[in-house]
Design brief:
Blueprint lengths: L1 H9 L34 E3 L6 H5 L2 E4 L21 E4 L4 E4 L6 E8 L4 E6 L4 E10 L3 E6 L8 E4 L3 E3 L24 H25 L13 E4 L2 E4 L7 H4 L5 H15 L12 H15 L5
């Protein structure tokens, strides 16, 4: 294990580990900004500041206002467990809930007449019914009327989403690797689950860059890898968190994926020369890992 980690160190420039983009001096966003104040990637995003259709407004990422700043000081190695209550509503009627905690998923419907949202949980075979008290491009206030609650639950968002939902790391189809299988899987299925895990983080990195997110945190997202500024490492076995183990049928199957990841990381990768943005550095290598994984057995 030490040899594998040391090899990763040789092929990368190790900077300070960080979870907040503001803390890394080498990660300045290089996206140009046009006259409308929107980043160069705006052709890949839908900006909802002028949206009038309520369903259209709802189709984005929503985080509980009380939790919105919670990730700022949370590193991936943090021993604390915090709630990060969130909904990720896709335009095709699917959703995932709380992907940084215990992820739920399913389908959602909006009733325009009653101004209600119904969440049908595939993972729980249950549902919730919320009444919209207020909605805007960046604000959503709900009441959980399925439990007759009068408490107003405030959520916030960035007011933008991907035009192509397949680019969104929190689209359900990009998170099926997290759904625990009902039985032992073949080596090929375990291989595919790890490959989809890598694909999720490729989308995660790209989303940060495209949406120009100010805070970067990997806390709560299942992985056997550690993400540093200009470096990617595999965790020690004792560092593996239960949320990654539980993506597999059992620990033995998770360790098969871990061993595959260890062999994958021991390969040589080219780091982009002259690139100062650590997000782009890691993404460049991560995309190489994704292409190389099918060569590893």
């Amino acid at each position: 294990m030490i040899k594998r980690i040391f090899a990763a160190i040789v092929f990368s420039v190790i900077l300070i580990s960080c979870n907040n983009a503001k803390e890394n001096p080498g990660n300045e966003k290089e996206d140009s900004v046009g006259e409308d104040g929107k980043a160069e990637h705006s052709d890949r995003l839908i900006y909802l500041d002028t949206a009038r259709n309520l369903y259209n407004l709802l189709c984005q990422d929503w985080v509980m206002a009380d939790d919105a700043d919670a990730l700022t000081d949370m590193s991936e190695d943090s021993k604390f467990e915090i709630p990060y209550r969130s909904f990720y509503l896709a335009a095709n009627g699917t959703f995932i809930k709380n992907p940084r905690n215990a992820m739920d998923f399913g389908n959602w419907q909006f009733d325009d007449a009653d101004k209600t949202i119904t969440f049908n949980y595939s993972s729980l075979n249950e549902k919730d019914l919320y009444k919209i008290a207020e909605i805007g491009p960046e604000v959503l206030k709900l009441k959980n009327i399925s439990i007759n609650s009068s408490t107003i639950l405030p959520f916030v968002s960035s007011g933008k989403r991907f035009k192509d939902m397949n680019e969104d790391p929190y689209f359900i189809e990009n998170n099926r690797w997290r759904i625990k299988p009902l039985k032992n899987e073949s080596d090929a299925a375990i291989h595919q689950r790890l490959k989809e895990n890598l694909h999720f983080f490729i989308l995660f990195y790209k989303s940060i860059l495209i949406k120009d997110d100010k805070t970067v945190s990997f806390w709560g997202l299942p992985s056997c890898f550690k993400w540093y500024g200009g470096g990617i490492f595999i965790k020690q076995k004792e560092e593996l968190k239960e949320n990654w183990i539980s993506c597999f049928y059992n620990r033995d199957q998770a360790m098969k994926a871990y061993d595959l990841a260890d062999r994958l990381l021991s390969q040589k990768y080219e780091w982009p020369k002259g690139e100062k943005n650590w997000l782009k550095q890691n993404l460049y290598v991560l995309e190489q890992m994704y292409k190389k994984i099918d060569e590893i057995h």
